[in-house]
Amino acid sequence: MDIATLLQEIRSGKPHSKNCIEVGVLSTKIIDYLTKHNVPIHTKEIYLNHKGLSHMQRQEKKRRGAGLDDVDILAIPKILKSPSDVFFDPNKGKLNIYYCQESKSCEKIVKVVVDTKFIYKGKRLTLIKTAGYIAHFNKPKSEELRIL
After folding, report:
1. Could you give the residue ranges of the DSSP H alpha helices within 39-143?
2. How far apart are CA 75 and CA 83, in angstroms?
3. Is the pTM here over 0.85, yes or no?
């Protein structure tokens, strides 16, 4: 199953044929950083579930301009593979993965929030919690939290 099929199931209201799909993997550099800082990693594979995908599509997010369009949702595997920046948020214990397609302006940045220690029905996963657009000035500036 792929993201497009998962998205269709959510929009159609049909029962989910599969709740969770693999959409990427943590790079060696990210794993090394998290290990060095004693952050648990359940899996090096990154998963996306129906709840996370639904969260990205919420009307409230769309209204305020933060909801991802379909093109960027379908590009999540590419974003995870080639992020512009990766920061660790020590307050929330989550990875924040940033991607900007326009390397010069970067007015609209995709932010993907990844939980490396998520537990769902007893299964331990590294899971995308949500994703959305942020303004470039909302991106962290602290170099000590930068991984990539």
Report:
1. 50-56, 59-63, 70-74, 76-81
2. 11
3. yes
